[in-house]
Amino acid sequence: MPIETHPFGQLALPEGGPNPGVVMIPDVWGLSDLYERLAGRLAEAGFAVLVMDPYRKTGGRGDFSDPAGAMAFIRELSDPLVIETVQEGIDALAAHPAVAGQKVGVIGFCMGGMYALHAACSCTGLSAAAPFYGMIRNEAGLDPEKKPRAPIDALKDLTCPVLGQYGEEDALIPVQDVRDLEAALAGSSRGGTVHLYPGAGHAFLNDMREEMYRPEQAAEAWSRLVPFLKESLG
To answer: What is the pTM of this model?
Structure first.
């Protein structure tokens, strides 16, 4: 599926239309071939996909080369500014002729999964959110202007159903956090489901990282994502 350049990132469009829209938020490393391919797969399933550049308004991606540096960068990133960027992506996709009044959802991966959860609680115009291994709680002592609330605390303002997918062996996200997310969604009127995959850690859908990729769990997670989006956005 061909990918078009868009002012906010990259766009993958199915044939025909209008079609439901999906805003895809990449991980901390930003736009990459991985998300082009995932967007193409969703376009083949009938969704118009905007892979958004999460750093369009922040001045660019930080200078880091390892997971520790990436996490340090995330701690200093302004959540309100990125959420504002996500909202602009939602609005732009909703207004695109390929979507033209159809429903819009959001999905994200790692840092992008965290912002997908935030978007489900802070943005307008969403009918579904599907975070993959998105962080759920903030560390203590972060700048409250940059990190005013953690995703788990934002869920009181949830506006749409959520499908959360996490690895049981994720070194960044404790299993208890995932269970707490599951309980919070179960108590929400908007509803939500969380799946925890044994044998999988962080980034288990990322086939560009051989040490992290778990093909069986990735296939199972994808097989849940597409029906969830079809049901929520159809």
So the answer is: 0.96
